[in-house]
Structures are given as structure tokens and as C-alpha cells.
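Hello,

Following up on my earlier ticket. Below are the two sequence lines again, exactly as submitted.
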Amino acid sequence: MKTSLGPKPIVFPMPAFLVATYDENGRPNVMTAAWGGIASSDPPCVSVSVRPSRWTHGAILKNKAFSVNCPSSALAVAVDYVGLVSGRDFDKFKIAGLTAVRSDLVEAPYVAECPVTLECALRSQVDLGAHTMFVGQIVDVKADTRTISLSAEPDPVAIDPLIFASGAYHQLGQALGRAFSIGLSLKKNEPQQDRT
Amino acid sequence: MKTSLGPKPIVFPMPAFLVATYDENGRPNVMTAAWGGIASSDPPCVSVSVRPSRWTHGAILKNKAFSVNCPSSALAVAVDYVGLVSGRDFDKFKIAGLTAVRSDLVEAPYVAECPVTLECALRSQVDLGAHTMFVGQIVDVKADTRTISLSAEPDPVAIDPLIFASGAYHQLGQALGRAFSIGLSLKKNEPQQDRT
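Thanks for your patience. The regenerated structure is below:
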């Protein structure tokens, strides 16, 4: 039986992205963003939503660029910290023990400690009330060499991504099977085609 | 050390949403969408990206409505199946053993078996090449009563959400701490304010 919770911004799972920018003074800044995800395959795009009051908001508009960094579970404390305070007031990279690396491709830093980073050029923005949704075109994905499998795919177990759910951080759990594969077992339920 | 993977649509984690609609014949249809996430808090909005060739694409445009359903890990096979075939050809709800419930609020069904469902009214769309990003305003969230904690929050362990990562499905893993809380331990690293 289902109960109504009213209109709320809740899905499962959510990411705990780190969004990194250069601020109006050229200093690297980083914030946490759970509102976002992949937006298109070709060209590859990602969206992140940021409140207009955030220091990051002006930085994205100024540089037309940002990075989306996927932290490992080991970074949970740092990820939570950079969601608590503003880059107006503090050097969050330094306090959280994170390293800003200048992108060669866009005017944004990325976070060295994150196993997967996306360098993004601002493509479009949608004003949605409390948040502006920024859509970035992904110019490059960089991954730690230790997290790349023999088939050149990022290995989710090696990445050990940080996951956000109902106000708590979690690790990734048990693998259940491959996509575009485990569902094939249900094709037996499809009605038979007329083969005459 | 990081290696470049080129521009690719990859983040960690991704959701494995079920997007449900009524098609042009009024029949319920459902597809899998890993491209999406929360887009704003107020009004609460969610985005899902759908290829123009998909049967769901026309249904969203026709009814200006859809539901976003968050499946539990027990639904992995059904979730994968409804991403493999088209509602043009098959009654995917029936073949996958899923139940369509008519929303009282929007012209879309939701998936009874999913522990958390969002009923959405189409708010805006952004054409991004391979995919159209549909932003839906969340009119209501419905959750299984068994997954609601005493504090009226959805409990991620009870929900047991299905997670998508690098082409594989996973369960949620170990909890690591509360948001807006575990990061407070780093405030000791902040420079001292002048208190004179």
C-alpha cells in the first residue's frame, strides 16, 4: 500500500557530485550537488542544479564551464563538508584536503582525489525556481587508471562511488547482473509472432 | 594517475528509473531511463532524458505527463527487460509482471511494484541531440508504507533501490553517515575568525 508524501524532490539513488569551478577571483571552488545526472548521449551532456545564491552559480555563468567529479566513498566527510560552507568564506579545497587540477580543456578545475571527473562546457541553463539547471557538454572524462578494467570500462567496484539516499551517504552494494542482458529471460513471456 | 576516456556519458552512481506513460492509444507503457535526476527543490522537479525514437517520447508530449518510478533491487530483471523492447510492439507491463495504476493527478500511470513513485506534469523540455531532456514538476510522491520510517522519511535500506553503474545493476551498500553532519568534523580546519 502506498502513502502520499506530497510533492518532494526525492529519487533513489542520488549522486553526491562535486562541482568545481574557478570563482570570480580565479580561485578554485567546489560544492556538493545531489541534483543532477546524465542528460544526453550524443553529444554527451550532464546536468547539475545549483541555487542562484551559491558562489558556484556565478562562477559557472562567468566561465561557461565546470567539472562534475564523482567521489569514492572514502571522500564522504570531505563531500559533506563542501556542502556545508560557502567558497565566498573559505578555501574549501584546502580545508577539505582536496586538490584542484587545472583543466586543459575548459576554464574549470577538477578534483584530483575523485576517481572519475567530467570536464564540461556550459551548453544551456533552465531556470526552475529554487535551482538553475546547468547542462554541460562533457568535453572529456578522466578516470584513475586503477579503476579501468581490461575492457577499458570504469569498474564500479574499484571506483566505490559515494551514493546519496534520504539524507545519508552509502557505498555501492552487491552486483546483480549486466544491463541489456538479465532482462532477456523475460522474452519467453512475449506473445508468439505469426511465423506462417 | 588519471587517463582520458574521451567525451562519454558516464557518472557514478546512475539511477535505473522506470518512466511510465499512456501511449497514443491510451495503453500504459513503461521504459527504463538511467539519464536523469532531481532538477530543482521548489517547485520540486525531476528530469529524464528520452530518445525521440522511443515510444515514450510521443506519449510524454501528447499527455504532458509521466511518472518516474524508483525500483527496488528485486525488480532488476523487469527493469532490464523494459529497456530492451518497445511499447510499440509489446505490452511491457504485462510481460514484465508489472502493474499500471492510473494517477488521479496527472495523465500517466505509475508502477505499483516500485517502492517510490513520482507523478509528474511536463514543465519544460530541452533538445540535446540524441536525447530530449524532459523536466517534470513533481505533483506527488507516493511511497510504500513499509518503507517509511517513524520520522516519515523514506528509509533507503527498506527501499533497497536498484542502482546502475557501468552497465551493471547493483544494490545499495553500507551506510556511511548523515548528510549535513559528518562534514562538521572538518570545521576544525577552518581559519580562526578574528573575535576581538
